Every structure is written in C-alpha cells, then in structure tokens.
Amino acid sequence: MSPAGVIEAAPGRRPGHVPPRRTGRAAALSAGLLAGLGVLVLLTLVGIAVGSRSVPLSTVVDALTAPDGSTDHTVIRELRVPRTLLGLGVGAALGLAGALMQSLTRNPLADPGLLGINYGAALGVTVALGLLGLSDPAVYVWFAFAGAALSAVLAYALGSAGRSGASPVRLALAGVALGMVFHAAASAILRMDVATFDRMRFWLTGSLAGPTPDIAVRLAPFLIAGLVLGLLLAGPLNALALGDDAGRSLGVGVGRTRVLTAVAVTLLCGAATAAAGPLWFVGLAVPHAVRTFTGPDQRWLLPYTVVLSPVVLLGSDILGRVIAAPGEVQVGIMCAVVGAPVFILLARRRRLAAL
Amino acid sequence: MRLYGSGLTLSYDQRVVATGLDVTIPDGSFTVIIGPNACGKSTTLRALARMLKPRAGAVHLDGSVITSLPSKEVARRLGLLPQSSIVPDGITVADLVSRGRYPHQRLMRQWSKQDEVAVATAMESTGVTDLADRCVDELSGGQRQRVWLAMALAQETPILLLDEPTTFLDIAHQIEVLDLCADLHEQGRTLVAVLHDLNQACRYATHLIVMRDGRIVAEGDPTEIVTAELVQEVFDLRCEIVEDPQSGTPMIVPEARRRTRAPA
Amino acid sequence: MTVLRLGPWSVRLSPRGIAVAAAMIVVGVAVSLVALSTGEFTVPIPDIVTSVFGQGTPAAELIVGRLRAPRVVTGLVVGAAFGLSGAILQSLTRNPLGSPDFLGFTAGASTGGILAVVSGGSAWQIAGGSLLGCVASALLVYGLAFRGGVQSYRLVLVGIGVGAVLVSVDWYLLTRANINDAASAGTWITGSLSGRGWDHAIPVACALLLLLPVCALISRPLRMMEMGDDAARAAGIGVEKVRAAAVVTGVLLCGVATAAAGPVIFVAMAAPQLARRLSRSPGVTMIASALMGAVLLVTADLAAQRLFAPVQLPVGIMTAAIGGTYLVFMLRKERR
C-alpha cells in the first residue's frame, strides 16, 4: 500500500540511500550501453537478412549501400527494412513508455499493455479505420493518441478508486478489465466487415508486418518526439521517485513533470499501437531486467531501456519468423510468450506482498 | 501449563528466525513478549497461535500437540488478534464482531442464543455497543482496534493472543486498548501480547518474555527481571531504571547524551 | 438480519436479501417469458404454457420447445454458473474485479474451445475442449502462484499473466485458420447462445446441482477469509483447503458455462457486485449472485437478438457493453 513498499519492490533501491558515485561504474555502464547499441545494430542486420527468403548479410549491406534492383535487394529495401525500422521504433517506444509509467506511478507492474493503454489506442485506430474510413496513418494516429490517453486516465482512476488507494494489483486488474472492454469493442467493430477483419486481425494481435509499408516513416515524427521527451524527463523523475514532497523540495515542478510524462507515454503508446497493434509486456519486462544492473537511476535506466527494448522486440520478431517459417508467429504473441514469464516471476516475488 | 512450545525451529521460507526455542505461557498470566525489531517475537506468537508451522518442535495446547487438534476446536480455546486484518467493504460493527462466533457455529446452527449473548457481552466490554450499526470503515483507528478486539472476545476463548495490538494508535488509544486488555486479564483470561514499548510492557505484564535474535534472554515478573544491564544487552541501549511513579513498575529512561541541557 | 430458530437449528437471513432474490426471480421469469413468446413468430403466453406440457399446437411446440426454450434455459443456467463462479472468485481474491474473466480461466476455456473449432470439432468436442482448457489453465495458474501456499494477490497476478499468453495464443490460432473457421471461432469466443439445444443446458444444470452444496459449505468460511488469512485461521478455518475447494468450484462452474455458451465476458464480474449492491450486504452472496447472473444473461441475450433485429449480435458483445457500463458506474460510485 505504501509508496515505500513500492520503492522496495525495485531491486537495489532503498529509501534514503544514495549510491556512491564512482567513475568506474559510470564507465562500465557507458561501455555496456555501447555494447547494447552494437548488439542492436547487429540484430537489425540479422532482422533484415532473415525471413521466408533468407539472404546473406553481405547482400544486406550491398542492398543498403549500393542497390542493384535485383529481387533480393527490392525485398530488402521495400519490405524488410521498413519492417525492421518499425520494430526498432515500436520496441524503443513501448520500453520507454513502460519505464516512464513505472516511475511515474511508482508501480512495478505498470505496462502499456497490461494497463489497457494499448487496447485503448487500438480501439481509437479501429474506430478511425472501421467506422470513419480514415486510412492515412498520420491521421488515424491521433485517434490512437485519444484512445491511449483516455484509457490511461480511466485505468488509473479505476485502479485508485476505493479506500485503499492505488495498489499495483488493483491497477493491474483495472487495466486488464478496461483492456477487455476496449478489445471487445474493437473486435465488434472489425467484425462488421469481413474484409477489414481479415486485413486487421493480424494487426490486432500485434504484428510488425504493418498495415502499410510506409507506416514507419509516417509515424516516425511522433515516435521520435515521444522518445526525446521521455529521455529528457529522467532527471525530474529521479527526484520524484523519492515522493512528491521530496521532489518538490528538490525544486521539481511535480505537476508539470507528471503532465509531460503522461504526454510522452501517450505519444509513445499511441504511435506504437497504431503501427504494430496492441503489444504486451515489452514495457514491463525490459525496464525490470535493466533495473537489475543500472539500479533505479533514470538517467541510466531510460537510455538502456530505449536500446534494449528493440533488441527484445526484434529478437522476438526474428524468432517468430524462424520457428514458423515459411509463415510467421506475430510479434504480439511472441512478446506475450517471452514477457509473461517475467511478469509471473515478478508476481511470485515475496517483496510484492508488502504492497 | 495450558500453552507452551518446546524445541521450536521457526522459519519463513529459507530464513530461520529461531532454533530450539522453548516458550511457556503461565496460566492466567498477562504475558508480554518484547524485544528489538526482527527478534522473532511476532513469529513466536504466530507459532503459538498455529499460524506458522514450526519446522521442528511443537506447540502444545492442553496437553496435545496443537496441530493434532481440530482447528475449530483450537479456535474455541485460543483466540488471536492478527496484526493486519482486512475490513470487508461496507461491513457494520455488529456484523464484524458476530463473525468472531464462527468456531461455535455450524451450517445449520448459524445464530444461537449463546452467539447473541457473547456478541453483546464482547461489544459491551470493549465499549462499542453504541457503534453497533456504524460501518467499520468510518471509525477512527482506536475505535476500529476495539472492534477487532471485540471480535476476538466474542470468540470466548480462555486464551487470547494479541499481535502488536497498539501499533498505529496514538498514545491515548494505546493506553485505552492496554487498559482494556488488563480488564480482560482480571476477568480470568490468559493474555499474550507482542508489544513495542518497554515501559508499557513493564506496566501491564504479569509475565515478561524478553527476546533477542530468536532466543529468550530473560523472563519473569518485570519488576524482578528488568535491569539496566538487560536493556543494554537486549536493545544495545544505555539507560537508567526508575520506578514508574504511577504503577511502581520499572521504567526505562534512556541515557541522555549530555547530562544537563546547555544554558541558552 | 433476522434469525430463524427451530430447536437446535438456527439460520440467519437478511430480509432485504430475500426481497431482492424474490424480485430477481420475478424479473427472470418475466424476461424468459418475453424471450419465449416474441421473435419472428409471436407465441401467446398461454400457448407457451400448454406447449411446455406437450399440449400445444405443433408449430408452437416446435418454436418454443425446440428453439426458444433450450436457448432461454441455457442462458439461465449459464448465467447462474457464471454468477456463482464470479462470486466465489471475487470473495477469494477480495477484489470486485477478481472474476474468472481476468484470472486466465475464461481465456483458457477460449483456447481449448478455439483449438476444437479450428480443428473442425463437433459441438461436444468444442465443449469438452473448453472445459479442459479452463481446468488446465486453472491448474497452471494455481501451480505457478503456489509458493508454500497461495496468496490471493499472487493468484490474481499470475492469472493475468497466464491469461495474456492464452489470449495471444487464441489470436494466433485465429490468424492461422482460414477466414471461415476464423470467423466462426471469432463468434464463438465472443460468446453466443444462438442455436443452443438441451444438450447444452443439461450439463450446466447438472453441474449447478452438484456444486451448489459445495458453495453452501464454503460460503461461510470464505466470508471469514475476506478478513484476511490470519483472521480466518484464528477462527479455525483450514484456509488452504477452503481456497483450493473454492478455486476448483469456481473453475468448474466457469468451465461448464463456457463450454455451453463460449466465454461470455463480464457476467461473472458484474453479477455478484450488482447483487451485492442491491441487497446491501457486505461481501458477495452466492444465491443472489447466481440469480443475478441468470437474469443478466437472458436479458442481454434478449437484447442482443431484438435490439438490432434482424441483425443478431452475439450475446458476448452485449455483456461486454454491460461490463463497460458497470466499470464506469463503479468508478463514479467509488470516486464520491
């Protein structure tokens, strides 16, 4: 129940305990971040190479640097590259959104999928596509933003209703319940038209195949805006982690930080969902894993999350394409299968009992 | 002795709290268990109340191993006021107190005349009769604790265990609850309580059990066992023992860092 | 509370609770009669009565006896089973949202059912598949949440996690299937009562009859457990045993109900809470929840059939709408 309990649930974070600043640690963390970036670049190339028709990495490099118009190069430039870029953007967005939400609500279970925010965004998209016939991603993404913002507010209000206030379990249940309502509404709308249902059912499961190939480009401005805004909030969120009063006494604008964080989360979740459908658990699993070696410092936690979340998402996507070749298992399913065990492990931890 | 534990090894998961612990509750006593944080006092109480199964050793009630008795049978002899209980939404005081009668009820004997009398008496002696129809949510902390106590009383057990009954209460309500406990003890019940405040323990206990690191350091009448050395040994606190001007029991006055206040 | 005493026996009853139960029975009967008599062909209510006793016109007997009555009865028993299941699990998790819908049980039933649908199974195989799926998911949730005993919050969280995986699996199956199978499985996972016959209603009715005594037995210990495990143990309750019995009962009820009608969401969540608010009792009550579930489901089914006629909506969409409304209502109520 108490905020202190929530803080305890994060490993290595003790109230009133400031980790000693050591240059060695900072150097190690910087090196780690670079290594993570390296892995990400490598995985990006692998993601482009692997598919129903796999090509050697050298061909990938050729296609990117000197395209010759061959089938391989066309497939790479027109299908694989957009898909992989989409994975990069969506992964980074969802991971960062999860980390920001966990920090803002001091709730270890906060995740854009679990709290129903992605389903809210998906409902927004479905309304735009299915009822209003809008098909430009840069237009319907605004419906996703509206849906995401609405469901975030509703989930938090529902989860903190009642005497005991917002506990992680209440919030999770409220989010799941809302998510089910949104999902039922979205499927009802989609089912009215078989053609739309057939096209969108992959998206509604969460897929990087993308409703249109250029979607990554169309949504890039929103994703980048959300990422930059989110990363800039690391400092103020660090101060707020000690409690609103402590944050205020450290000179942080508490209200402003909250609003900006909410804006960042809405941008990230809305754009990611518009692009790849409602995904679960990336935003939950990655920040928790990262926290085990960065500790609670948002200035390390957020960049690491931004780098490693796409690694997980792209990795899941590649795995989904490999195990079901020549078809694919949608990345949404892979994320649930990879992320849910992390969530269950978290739930089994005794510390949470104090919440 | 109706209630005692012998050779108890107590643990949560892998963390062992106590090994080979012998603890005896004198009949008709108001026993208070005290000790620094994490000394195992609540764990010991929970083991005595069969909330925690000892890894080795056994708790005995009236000559039988407590786990061998039917749980409902135990509940008619031994009651527990747990440290944290949940108030169901919208429950009234009377309803909550009457739930204490559970061990005396059957599917087809849900509300006998005895149940009614026991609940009325329990509410009377804790002074919550006037609150009977109020919602428990609306009550103050002190009132709420009295309601929980009334529920434990309605169970009508000769032995009553209380796990930190005064936490989260202000000083006036702490004294109120402890006075109530003293009354209950005078009516002939055996009481066992875990308390934090050493002075309150000395004042109310007829039998004091002092624990540290999962073992009993001293036990007996507080006036006989509480010394400055004991407090130093158990709490690592230098202090002076004076006589409580009100009750004549030992009172602990922690040593000041400066003997006298520096002149302003 | 009034007390009825007879010799050594005594029973506690709340007058308001009895009034609410009676009112729900009246509403349930009224809605059922409307559902039986109206539709494409109107059958007057006296004819319904005669055809139930085999004395009606052949047309009335066909429409009422073969088509409408099984559907209404299936709705009633499935609704009651969902209501009871929700009441038990909400009491267990001490949370109004702790219903089988969110704990992975309904999701497990869906997965089992969809597996049967996409592999072209018969109605019986679909029912069996969803019952199996429900039980298997419950075992999984309970097993994963077990750590020297099961605590309610852990049950909820593990249930959510398992549910998420299963929902993903459902969607995977739907996307892998050809579009026709996918569409029919899609209707099935929304939950529907259309085309239900006596062989759907009877197993649920039997399960209700068998499990009602268990519900009666565990209802009082469950009420004690709402005050926390320690308080219940102190009162002499074998907490783990009661919890296991409650989970088994809740899961079986949810499983047979889902087998008959598909995973109709939100009935199990809303029914116990609505019943509780109407009868103003602290905590959920079993009988009232079962009655409320039955009333909710037949009413929702009637609305799904008639509201947009001739378009027939699956009842699951109606109950989802009811669930959404209820969540908003809950929000307003608790915000005060």
Characteristics:
heterotrimer, A: about 350 residues, mainly alpha, ABC transporter involved in vitamin B12 uptake, BtuC, 15 helices, globular, disordered N terminus, B: about 260 residues, four-stranded antiparallel sheet
Note the topology:
The complex is a heterotrimer of chains A (355), B (264) and C (336).
Chain A: H1 3-9, H2 23-49, H3 57-65, H4 71-105, H5 117-131, H6 137-160, H7 168-191, H8 194-205, H9 215-232, H10 234-240, H11 244-249, H12 254-276, H13 282-294, H14 298-323, H15 331-348
Helix pairs in contact in A: 2-3, 2-4, 2-14, 3-4, 4-9, 4-12, 4-13, 4-14, 5-6, 5-7, 5-12, 6-7, 6-12, 9-12, 10-14, 13-14, 14-15
Chain B: E1 3-12, E2 15-25, E3 30-34, H1 41-48, E4 56-61, E5 64-65, H2 71-77, E6 78-81, H3 93-98, H4 113-125, H5 141-154, E7 159-163, H6 171-186, E8 190-194, H7 198-204, E9 207-212, E10 215-220, H8 222-225, H9 228-235, E11 239-243, E12 250-254
Parallel strand pairs in B: 3-8, 3-9, 6-7, 7-8
Antiparallel strand pairs in B: 1-2, 1-4, 4-5, 9-10, 11-12
Helix pairs in contact in B: 4-5, 5-6
Chain C: E1 2-6, E2 9-13, H1 15-37, H2 45-52, H3 58-93, H4 105-118, H5 123-145, H6 152-176, H7 179-190, H8 198-225, H9 229-234, H10 239-261, H11 267-279, H12 286-306, H13 315-335
Antiparallel strand pairs in C: 1-2
Helix pairs in contact in C: 1-3, 1-12, 2-3, 3-8, 3-10, 3-11, 3-12, 4-5, 4-6, 4-7, 4-10, 5-6, 5-10, 6-7, 8-10, 11-12, 12-13
